Amino acid sequence: MPIITHELLENAINYSAYVAMVRELLVQNQTTGIHATDAYWINMTKRNWERMDFLVESLELEKSIVKKLTAYQTPITWLAITEAWCVDSPESLCIVHKMAMLNPNIHLKIILRDSPPGIIDNFLTNESKSIPKIICLDTESLAILGTWGPRPAELQAKLMIKVKMLDNISKHSEEKSADCKKFMDDILSYYAEYSNYEIQREIINSLLF
């Protein structure tokens, strides 16, 4: 049985529906997945919402990338796996949304990591369920053509060093909890300072064939 089926894609949502879902959850003071009622992750979701709202208005695609996208003729589907609280998702989801809007041959679909059937288990990063993960599929055959995620290569390399440092701290210690929150703040700072053009180039190189 294929990992990803046409039925799964039919039940997946588009970017507009995803944004509407997140907005409704925040009205109810909730978020998605395993952190649905956790105050810290609800607050992170609110921050993500603000970033998405800003990016969808301000983000511009690089001219060379626009040229590649508009000329592309093969029907493909980009399946994004994420959660509303995911600190890495706003930039990458907004970028692939804007890219897909340029070409009717590119279909963007979104599913939640923590919902059945657990597709993320087949796309682990260093044995972890890191998100977002974006999978490029041939729309007709559903052959997997490529993947991108969970974050830009430079940021991923830096964070892996910090993860190793955190692993040396007791799992249940208050110190580790504080360091994990600092970890999230470091990611946010990176995106605030980092040019999203490089993320655009990475995504195009991984998801366009």
What features would you describe in this structure?
With 209 residues, the chain is an alpha+beta fold. The chain folds into 2 domains: 6-151 and 195-207, 3-Layer(aba) Sandwich (Glutaredoxin), CATH 3.40.30; 153-193. The chain is 52% helix and 12% strand. It has helices at 6-11, 15-27, 39-58, 63-71, 89-101, 153-167, 174-193, 196-207; strands at 76-82, 106-112, 133-138, 144-148. It has a 4-stranded mixed sheet, covered by helices on one side. Helix 2 crosses helix 3 (39-58) and helix 3 (39-58) runs parallel beside helix 5 (89-101). The longest helix has 20 residues, at 39-58. 32% of the residues are buried. The model has no long low-confidence stretch (mean pLDDT 90).
Instruction: Choose one word for the global shape.
Output: globular
Structural class: alpha+beta
Going by CATH, the homologous superfamily of the largest domain would be Glutaredoxin
Order of strands, main sheet, comes to 2-1-3-4
Determine and state the CATH class of the largest domain: Alpha Beta
CATH topology of the largest domain: Glutaredoxin
- Over all CA atoms, what is the radius of gyration? 17 Å
Count the beta strands: 4
Which residues form runs of ≥5 with pLDDT under 50? none
* Mean pLDDT across all amino acids: 90
Reading the helices and strands in chain order gives: HHHHEHEEEHHH
Kindly state the percentage of residues in helix.
40-55%
Query: Count of helical segments?
Result: 8
- Count of domains: 2
Distance between the termini: 25 Å
Strand content: 5-15%
Largest sheet: 4 strands, mixed
- The name of the CATH architecture of the largest domain is 3-Layer(aba) Sandwich
